[in-house]
């Protein structure tokens, strides 16, 4: 007679086989399917992410201030929204100031470039012969820019829909996270009972261990990365405002903070915008900005990052690059951000598998 466990095992094998067949037979359709599932689950995934970030504050308020659960949750969200609102209050004027700077400085920069070209064109005959080709390429570049802008304007409705969808998912994620935080013990008990009723005790313990490891890595990675990026953003602002005295220092330091959240490539991406912005009105100062950001990246990579992150995400730079490239190509920005903790979890289980096989060989 076929046991219940064997039936479950057969169903699981068939299900995994079908998924693998679909992935090999039509990988593009398979990836689109995964993206659709992630898009559908995005409010729930966002709610879990919010819970990971807010739960420590709720627990602190419950434990130290003896506040009721619902009051702790509401206080936590009010504090977070207040901080975000305060940040936007400073950031929005900084963005407007940056745009004004670009609009004002670009014409004078173009005039400077034209004067530079006129001076040196008169000295070199070769440059005079190249001038028509340069002009032709500039016209082509301008036409391409106009084409891009026209495409953007024609797709403006789609962008509005995307922003609306993102806003809806964010609101739903916040609402769901409040319910999850309020009933987290009951939800965990129900999920644990469901797990033990579906799988054997041994398998259930392994699944719980997997979720415990995943929760630990994701939590420490997200919180650690956030704290690390805040410190780097503050240091960037101090350097931009008080040392280098560049324009739009608040907005540029916010860009540095935001891009620092992206693993490995983020600091390099974040350096581009401040350098270009400074180059518009002061080429010499842009070199100092580049040098300052390079030093800041070295401090972050060698001291601040390792100190905050600790050994929770102990993977090599090569594995980080591979994970970021694969995650980004398959799932975009979300894939880039989550690729490192996922790679860390995979590495833990690969190491466990190798160690267990080596132990078996040694015992034989």
Features:
364 residues; mainly alpha; 2 domains; 11 helices
CA distance, first residue to last residue: 34 Å
Topology as H/E string? Answer: HHHHHHHHHHH
Contiguous uncertain segments of 5+ residues:
none
Number of domains: 2
Question: Could you give the topology of this structure?
Answer:
Blueprint: H1 4-25, H2 27-64, H3 69-121, H4 125-154, H5 156-182, H6 184-198, H7 201-243, H8 249-260, H9 266-281, H10 283-309, H11 317-363
Helix pairs in contact: 1-2, 2-3, 2-5, 3-8, 6-7, 7-8, 7-10, 7-11, 8-9, 9-10
Could you describe the 3D structure shown?
Belongs to the autoinducer-2 exporter (AI-2E) (TC 2.A.86) family. With 364 residues, the chain is mostly helical. It folds into 2 domains: 42-182, no CATH class; 202-357, no CATH class. The protein is 91% helix and 0% strand. It has 11 helices and no strands. Helix 6 (184-198) packs across helix 7 (201-243) and helix 8 runs antiparallel to helix 9. The longest helix is centred in the N-terminal third of the chain and has 53 residues, at 69-121. The two termini are 34 Å apart.
Give a quick rundown of the structure.
With 364 residues, this protein is mainly alpha-helical.
